[in-house]
Write a structure and sequence with these properties.
Largest sheet: 3 strands, antiparallel
Helix content: 55-70%
Order of helices and strands: HEHHEEHH
CATH architecture of the largest domain: Orthogonal Bundle
């Protein structure tokens, strides 16, 4: 679970605090490449800030290649340094969405992937 907070008593603006905390979480390894971030509205509600504050943080992080927005799929920590891994992550994300929509359990979904990988050796 991503633990972020905004301290209104600091001179640093809230969007910058969020940006620094997300970068710090990625650097510390608590936010891994491919991790999904909360929606702008959800994070704004959680932190008690305006959605524009979170949107500005996300926009700056995306401009720096730290995160990426995939339309309706959401916002994720970027795989910017590894385009092949990014493609694999996108395929995995699409697969996860498909099996969720089919009501398949996590365990069964993993079994299906494992079997498919073995079959293509």
């Amino acid at each position: 679970m991503l633990s972020l907070h905004v301290d209104a008593t600091l001179a640093e603006p809230p969007y910058a605090q969020l940006r620094a905390q997300i970068v710090g979480a990625i650097s510390a390894g608590s936010l891994l490449p491919g991790a999904k971030l909360p929606t702008v509205r959800a994070l704004a509600d959680q932190l008690g800030v305006a959605p524009g504050t979170v949107a500005r943080s996300y926009k700056e992080l995306e401009a720096d290649g730290v995160i990426e927005t995939r339309g309706r799929a959401g916002t994720f920590v970027s795989f910017a340094d590894d385009p092949l891994r990014r493609q694999a992550q996108q395929a995995a994300t699409a697969y996860a969405a498909q099996v969720r929509s089919l009501g398949i359990s996590d365990e069964e979904a993993v079994t299906l992937v494992t079997d498919a990988l073995r079959a293509t050796r």
